[in-house]
């Protein structure tokens, strides 16, 4: 399918400073920005920046960023699921994954994550997609927030829910390995019934539970 992308931008005031929230951002622009040293949930900052640049260059790839001047302090990524994951088995060109969302600690109190998502879904083209997010507690920054795993889960549900993402049941072993993990998804308004059925099938391998 085609992958049209419309750019959006907004400003946001936070305790850490005034931010620009923008995207989808081109790989050339991402390369020119610095990457905040506190963005370490998935990889060391330099490696994560490199990963974002590569995702931004994919036809379906979308990177929305929050930046303070020329330093990226938060981001959210969208791309096709990893071919090794079950979510790729449906071979759906209208299923993309919210692969990561991260905000550096000094900027977390200003609705930055919600604004990143809001900018993402302002693009009407996102209504062509079924967007999934696999949430694993081991990626959550429980230590610096002081939240319990259950409180953090509720925070994530609220943030994701702000753009219409909902929890869906699955028998995926990584998600079922801990009750705090969850599969969330947003079914775009133009996603057809056949695609929804394929998504329902890939959520469960043991059809007894389907």
From TrEMBL:
One of its GO terms (molecular function) is acetoin dehydrogenase (NAD+) activity. One of its GO terms (biological process) is acetoin catabolic process. Keywords: Transferase. This is N-acetyltransferase. It comes from Tumebacillus algifaecis.
């Amino acid at each position: 399918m085609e992958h049209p992308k419309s750019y959006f931008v907004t400003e946001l005031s936070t305790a850490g400073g005034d931010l620009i929230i923008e995207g989808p951002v081109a790989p050339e622009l991402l390369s020119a920005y610095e990457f905040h040293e506190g963005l370490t949930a998935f990889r060391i900052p330099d490696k994560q920046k490199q990963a974002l640049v590569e995702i931004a260059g994919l036809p379906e790839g979308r990177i929305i960023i929050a930046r303070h001047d020329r330093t990226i302090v938060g981001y959210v990524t969208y791309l096709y699921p990893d071919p090794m994951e079950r979510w790729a088995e449906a071979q759906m060109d209208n299923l993309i994954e919210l692969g990561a969302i991260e905000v550096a600690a000094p900027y977390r109190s200003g609705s930055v994550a919600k604004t990143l998502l809001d900018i993402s879904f302002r693009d009407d083209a996102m209504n062509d997609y079924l967007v999934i997010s696999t949430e694993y507690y081991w990626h959550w920054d429980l230590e610096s927030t002081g939240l319990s795993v259950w409180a953090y889960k509720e925070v994530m549900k609220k943030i994701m829910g702000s753009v219409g993402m909902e929890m869906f049941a699955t028998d995926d072993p990584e998600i079922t390995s801990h009750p705090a993990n969850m599969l969330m998804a947003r079914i775009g308004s133009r996603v057809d019934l056949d695609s929804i059925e394929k998504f329902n099938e890939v959520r469960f391998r043991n059809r007894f539970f389907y």
